[in-house]
Write a structure and sequence with these properties.
single chain; about 375 residues; elongated; disordered C terminus
């Protein structure tokens, strides 16, 4: 840009009318956007200098429009973007806080630390939010901000951040659902929060995880959850009436898996326990080893797996296998190894296969976690009962 033009621009910025400044900004913005992909770094820095000087002299409406137009531009002038993003008026800062790639994590953390809730909420809308930023958002944010962070799957959370969310979720059922549905929540915190969640939240957790297009799977999982809940209640009642008896005695239908457990645990210690072993046990009708392998590979108590394998429908088996990421061939082998499984017709297998394909891995993992936590809690309760 030649010296005469610079002098003319300086004069306009210092003594021009608001209307002329806005018109100049509009022309400069159009010129920049038209050639942004071709400009080199020196060109962009020159525009940055001009924009930075102009935005200190223009009205809010003009700053807002500039922010809106620069937000999606990958090579937007960085200092201009920073100044606009720090603007106290959320109408000006919002578009950049939500979208601008030019804002660094340090920029965002600084804004989250110093600005109001509207600015924090705008940051929550970003496709990706780094841990240092979410830590500030959760520390300073109000209920709406915290909820927005919890449901943003692109927000990376530190252990401290998750602890903050879980603590606040203990008295906020809606937040509890959002946190429990995050696939990255640490297991210990998932466990702690689920144990404090109401029954309604627990039910909605499973329902929310279901594939929207599969009402059949939704009904099946609801049925499975009811079966498991009823089984646990029945087991609990037996335990109350027979305190002091062995754990096996409180569940008369439970097989003796001690020998099968030894076999499976030995395989695990040798590093040989895998999906192929499970299939081999199932195909050889080694039921005890099949159940014990399922329990260890899916990190689910053998008592729970025993009940799920004996359920009226094979849906629990689908959930266990889908949560582990196994192939249909494995699922089929396990289904055929269930009591009465050999009588499953080819038509039934086709229907079960279709149901397995519709089942979401994320859904299956959440339901298995639910079983693990409920079983673990029941185990601790049983062990804590004085004999």
């Amino acid at each position: 840009m030649h010296a005469p033009y610079i002098a003319e621009l300086d004069d306009l910025i210092e003594r021009g009318s608001p209307g002329k400044r806005a018109t100049t900004l509009e022309r400069m913005t159009a010129f920049f956007l038209d050639g942004a992909s071709r400009f080199n770094d020196d060109h962009v820095r020159l525009f940055d200098l001009v924009f930075s000087r102009l935005i200190g002299k223009i009205e809010t409406a003009a700053r807002t429009e500039l922010s809106r137009r620069l937000a999606p531009v990958g090579k937007a002038p960085i200092e201009t973007v920073r100044r606009l993003a720090h603007d106290d008026d959320i109408a000006v800062a919002g578009p950049l806080l939500e979208r601008a790639d030019r804002l660094s994590d340090a920029d965002l953390a600084d804004i989250a630390q110093s600005k109001g809730q509207a600015h924090l909420l705008a940051i929550c809308a970003r496709a990706r939010i780094a841990q240092p930023v979410t830590d500030v958002l959760l520390r300073r944010g109000d209920r709406e901000v915290v909820h927005s962070v919890a449901e943003n799957r692109g927000a990376r959370l530190s252990d401290e951040g998750f602890c903050t969310l879980v603590e606040r979720a203990k008295t906020d059922g809606v937040l509890a659902e959002k946190v429990l549905l995050r696939s990255d929540i640490p297991p210990r915190l998932f466990h702690a929060l689920l144990l404090t969640a109401t029954d309604a939240v627990q039910r909605r957790l499973i329902a929310s995880a279901m594939p929207e297009t599969s009402s059949e799977v939704r009904r099946a999982l609801a049925k499975v959850s009811n079966e498991v809940a009823k089984s646990e209640v029945a087991k609990s009642e037996v335990g109350k009436s027979e305190v002091g008896k062995s754990e096996v005695a409180t569940s008369p239908a439970l097989r003796d898996y001690s020998r099968a457990r030894q076999t499976i645990e030995a395989l695990q210690q040798e590093g040989k326990l895998d999906e192929a072993n499970l299939v081999e046990f199932a195909q050889k009708s080694q039921y005890g080893e099949t159940v014990a392998a399922l329990a260890l590979l899916c990190a689910t108590p053998i008592e729970v797996v025993d009940r799920l394998m004996n359920a009226e429908r094979p849906d629990p088996v689908l959930i266990l296998c889908k949560s582990a990421g196994w192939a249909w061939s494995t699922v089929k082998a396990v289904i055929m190894a269930r009591p009465g499984g050999a009588r499953t017709s080819s038509q039934d297998l086709d229907a079960i296969h279709a149901e397995f394909d519709r089942l979401s891995p994320n859904t299956a993992q959440h339901v298995v976690r639910f079983w693990q936590v409920r079983a673990d809690d029941k185990g601790r309760t049983t062990r804590d009962v004085p004999t």
